Amino acid sequence: MTPEVLVRDHTVYSCVMGSRAFGLATEESDTDRRGVFVAPAPLYWRFEKPPAHVEGPAPEQFSWELERFCALALRTNPNVLECLHSPLVERLDDTGRELLSLRDAFLSRHAHETFVRYAAGQRRKLEADVRLHGAPRWKHAMHLLRLLASCRDLLRTGTLDIDVGADRESLLAVKRGEVPWPEVERRMTRLADEADRAAERSPLPPEPDHARVEDFLIRTRRASALQPDTDDQLVQRLVPGGRVGEGRG
């Protein structure tokens, strides 16, 4: 079972991300796709485990195995959390629907640390570009402003909304290089300060709901193991000679 087959046959949720999901798309924008697949439980019975993520098979496509996706989301990884909130869903089955129903279980005040830390790292890269080349990568500067605003609003409201709404034109002006870098820096500093203040009285819980997410993962694994074509038949296809229990040569 190749990584491509895992994505093709076992994806439970996929969506469009990037500028199209953020409300920042232009005629030149790519279509970035992200997804979650559930590797059949018998694949974990071997020494060689299924991949935790798969790039492709299409360009600009990236998928996580369910367990890896949940682990990252519980650590409030910005890219993963935003994937759960895309308005552009392309593929969804019952397991994917339950995953989406858990969106609030992944959210916690830890988002302040992870979002702001990630933003600080991206800002240092932009500042290095300015020192070396006289200007930042304006597209990256735009997305950093978007991320900081998203973090601030998440901490204020307890809800993650990835569409930039009325900020679209001001952000696209940054992407086009129409806003001087010192002004972009001032906006970044202001948004980071606002996020810090919002964190002090955020309605988000202090910790994500690990138990609720783990219960979902265990039930999904158990259901996969009980599928009629995911026990001996699957292992027979994976093991040379077609006999369960026979090791790789």
Which sheet architecture does the biggest sheet show? 5 strands, mixed
CATH architecture of the largest domain: 2-Layer Sandwich
Which structural category fits the helices and strands? alpha+beta
How much strand?
A: 5-15%
CATH C-level class of the largest domain is Alpha Beta
Spans of at least 5 consecutive residues whose pLDDT stays below 50 are 238-249
Count of beta strands: 5
Radius of gyration: 21 Å
Count up the helices.
Answer: 12
Mean pLDDT: 91
Helix content: 40-55%
Shape summary: globular
Describe, in plain words, how this protein is organized in 3D.
The structure is a single chain. The chain is an alpha+beta fold. It has two domains: 3-107 and 209-242, 2-Layer Sandwich (Beta Polymerase, domain 2), CATH 3.30.460; 110-200, no CATH class. It is built from twelve helices and five strands. It has helices at 3-10, 19-22, 66-74, 78-84, 94-101, 103-106, 110-133, 138-157, 168-175, 181-200, 210-225, 232-238; strands at residues 11-17, 32-37, 53-55, 61-65, 89-92. It has a five-stranded mixed beta sheet with strand order 3-4-2-1-5. Strand 3 and strand 4 (61-65) form a beta hairpin. The longest helix is centred in the middle third of the chain and has 24 residues, at 110-133.
